[in-house]
Recover the amino acids of this structure.
């Protein structure tokens, strides 16, 4: 069986035909997610390309990943990357086409479970550090969505710290500093290798503290890291893994393994196509 996978990222969108057994991608096309200023036009471009590929290949299953909050009914809730709040993708395809929608990071996790480091494993997390920062958790062979479907954030919320003695407060959103978007913007202003290395050293420690706290909260079997920041910065990733272990509280948990996604940049696309496949 084959399906159409659609991976809508903050930067680019990938659409391709996914083989259920092997995860092999064929007839893949890619384009900027923000090809137009108007998000309705961006939506139409994505849908029309998917419809064309499905009709030409007589495929009736379409899986979609979106970098937004998705509730447990598959409805987009939020407008962080696109003005698509309350959008239901099923309304844009004919009734004979089966459409499933999920968060992009949960699709990364799904692909890793079925074809990557997660094969035969029941409990791990996938952390995506790309255009944004997000995570997904599988426990006892079930992806944990949360009560409403919003269990993907660990760096997107405001953190408020207050020093009562000094009468000072500090309020920041980590994703504003440590996402791929923020890192790329900062690197444009760094001219020397020395300062670049210093910058990566600083953000590694900060990101590591967030990952360590996530691990302390969830207690996963192991961690899979993915996203452009991870895949394109080998030395930074190595340091990030080492730094993260320093923030893990339980001594035996410090020994857990960190893996780099086996499916790399295609994890989200493959996972979208495999939305119709069961884990067990």
């Amino acid at each position: 069986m084959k399906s159409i996978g659609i991976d809508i990222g903050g930067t680019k969108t990938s659409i391709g035909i996914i083989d259920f057994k092997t995860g092999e991608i064929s007839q893949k096309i890619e384009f900027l997610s923000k090809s137009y200023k108007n998000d309705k036009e961006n939506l139409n471009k994505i849908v029309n390309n998917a419809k064309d590929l499905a009709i030409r290949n007589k495929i009736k299953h379409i899986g979609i990943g979106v970098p937004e909050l998705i509730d447990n009914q598959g409805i987009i809730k939020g407008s962080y990357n696109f003005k698509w709040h309350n959008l239901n993708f099923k309304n844009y395809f004919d009734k004979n086409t089966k459409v499933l929608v999920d968060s992009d990071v949960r699709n990364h996790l799904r692909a890793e479970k079925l074809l990557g480091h997660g094969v035969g494993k029941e409990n791990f997390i996938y952390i995506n550090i790309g255009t944004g920062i997000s995570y997904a958790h599988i426990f006892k062979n079930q992806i944990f969505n949360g009560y409403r479907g919003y269990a993907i954030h660990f760096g997107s919320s405001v953190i408020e710290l207050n020093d009562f003695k000094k009468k000072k407060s500090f309020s920041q959103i980590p994703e504003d500093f440590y996402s791929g978007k923020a890192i790329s913007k900062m690197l444009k202003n760094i001219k020397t290798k020395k300062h670049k290395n210093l910058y990566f050293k600083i953000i590694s420690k900060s990101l590591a503290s967030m990952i360590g706290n996530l691990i302390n909260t969830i207690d996963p079997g192991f961690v899979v890291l993915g996203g452009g920041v991870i895949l394109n910065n080998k030395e930074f990733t190595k340091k990030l893994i080492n730094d993260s272990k320093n923030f893990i509280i339980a001594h035996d948990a410090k020994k857990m393994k960190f893996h780099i996604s086996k499916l790399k940049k295609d994890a989200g696309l493959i996972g979208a196509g495999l939305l119709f496949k069961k884990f067990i």
Remarks:
- Residues 2-108+266-273 form a domain with the Nucleotidyltransferase; domain 5 fold (CATH 3.30.420.40).
- The chain has eight helices and twelve strands.
